[in-house]
Amino acid sequence: MATKTPQDVLALCRDRGIKSIDLRFVDLPGIWQHFTVPVNQLDEDVFENGLGFDGSSIRGWQAINESDMLVIPDPTSAFVDPFTAIPTLVLVCNIQDPITRADYSRDPRNVARKAVNYMKSTKVADVAYFGPEAEFFIFDSVRYDQNAHEAYYHVDSCEAEWNRGKTDGNLGYQLRHKEGYFPVAPADQLMDVRNEMMHHLIDAGIEVEAQHHEVATAGQAEIDMKFRDLVRMGDQLLMYKYILKNTAKKYNKTVTFMPKPLFGDNGSGMHVHMSFWKEGTPLFAGNKYAGLSDLGMYAIGGLLKHAAAILAFACPTTNSYRRLVPGYEAPVNLAYSQRNRSACCRIPMYSPSPKAKRVEFRCPDPSCNPYLAFSAMLLAGLDGIQNKIHPGEPMDKDIYDLPPEELAKVPKTPGSLDESLNALEEDQEFLLRGDVFTKDIIHTWLEYKRKKEFDQIRLRPHPYEFCLYFDI
Mean pLDDT for each consecutive 10-residue tract of the chain (472 residues)? Predict the structure, then answer.
């Protein structure tokens, strides 16, 4: 049952025997948070006036002296949680200040809503569709730690190449590195897990296009969702992570969206397809290169111009840059092409239909906060359109076969989180238009990422440094 109104949600609760309401919202880094109330606490007034909670400990939010917040449930976001013992309905919420009733500027979902409203105010488009292809790993076990005198991580998978010599119950169907695309069973040992994930997504109201094994050994996978508008796709990506992780847990397995959990094999990216529409008409379709319109070309120009700043949100972890490494088939080249997957912007050519015309931005990874990453992409595309930023000539050659002097002329993505954060510091004007991103939220993001993540990695010895330097 699709819900559109508070009355629909209340009817769904009655029809499905719902006993608990789980109210969810997202912190600044992009992790769902929640609290739960009995179903009798939900009435039509809650959708208007919300419920109070303490936001003082939410990462990236206000200090303790401004901690009182309201959650305002969005009735269109409702879905029945497939994992709780007691029938529970999930509602994704917006955050408001309880005194002013203003939408909270550091709520990432509010940023996404403002991005859409700003786009509409420009008259360029009235809807922006996003289709992320989030890759992930399904491991059998994981352990890790870091302290003053030791550092380690260990992951394992029944499919992994490193288990070919295992003596206990080994049947010898492990996947070689980079050969996980697309073997059938028994080499693919995770078909049932992915199938269950897919059908939980469908039951939650997400339209799924396909599920499959991905390139890497050790259980890399992908489940593709059909494109949706920006805010709803942000919701769906968090639903996607929640459903996949909890389905894996039922099988005593674990899912990670870390961009690069394995050395020597493919990392997990999240190619994002983006298109703008107006009054039901696709705006990226035309008679220019690869069937694009001038508007579509300018959108690419905006993405390329602002790519480094976008990656502060779209590749927001230190681990992201273990994947974005030149020479390893990662999309690090700031170029565009109709088929070349080594370019950061690709124009898919699967269908001649104008409705299928879109731009695929290949740099992002699934560690991002989707509301912030998609909003940054939207604003960059709009900037390209408004200022008619042409992306230059396409790069249809195999970039990895270019002679060194020619390859040196192709600009690259930042090489570290620090470089991306520096780029955001220098290039943020396009994000501030329409008050979509505020200076406060950008400053908070920069400070959080530098102090809580980049500096914490920078300060600690790396295990491989012992291999290199212990006997120096």
Answer: 88 97 98 98 97 91 74 97 98 95 96 98 98 98 95 96 92 94 95 98 97 96 98 98 98 98 95 98 95 97 98 98 83 87 87 91 97 98 98 82 80 96 98 97 97 95 94 96
Q: Are residues 132 and 92 in the same domain?
A: no
Task: Say which residue the tokens 């090489």 belong to.
Answer: 415
Buried b (16+ CB within 10 A) or exposed e, 286-295: beebbbbbeb
Establish if 122 belongs to a structural domain.
no
State whether 98 and 131 are in the same domain. Answer: no
Number of domains into which the chain is organized? 2
Rounded CA-CA distance 321/414 in Å is 8
The Cα–Cα gap between 107 and 441 comes to 9
Q: Based on the domain organization, do 352 and 215 belong to the same domain?
A: yes
The 10 Å Cβ neighbour count of residue 406 is 11
C-alpha count within 13 angstroms, C-beta hemisphere, residue 203: 12
Taking the CA atoms of 284, 289, 295 and 297 in sequence, report the sign of the dihedral they define. Answer: positive
Question: Does residue 113 fall inside a structural domain?
Answer: no
CA atoms within 13 A on the CB side of 348: 18
Q: Look up the CATH number of the domain holding residue 448.
A: 3.30.590.10
Total Cβ atoms within 10 A of residue 83: 13
Contact by Cβ (8 Å): 144, 151: no
What is the pLDDT, as a whole number, of residue 402?
A: 76
In a shared domain, residues 398 and 270: yes
**Nearest Cα to 414, choosing from 288, 324, 317?**
324
Beta bridge partners of 135: 222
CATH number of the domain enclosing 75: 3.10.20.70
DSSP three-state, residue 13? helix
Domain end point (choices 104, 119, 135): 104
Cα(101)–Cα(142) distance, rounded to whole angstroms?
Answer: 44
Report pLDDT for 64.
47
3 state DSSP class of 445: helix
Closest C-alpha among 384, 396, 309, 314 to residue 347: 396
Which residue in this structure is represented by tokens 């080249």? 333
Supply 121's token pair: 């105010």
187 and 241 fall within a common domain: yes
**132 found inside a domain:** yes
Residues labelled as active-site residues? 54, 133, 135, 214, 222, 271, 341, 360, 362
216 and 310 assigned to the same domain = yes
Say whether both 154 and 94 belong to one domain. no
Domain of 368, in residue numbers: 127-469
| Residue pair 59/27 in contact by the 8 Å Cβ criterion | yes
Do the beta carbons of residue 443 and residue 425 sit within 8 Å?
A: no
Residue 339, domain member (yes or no): yes
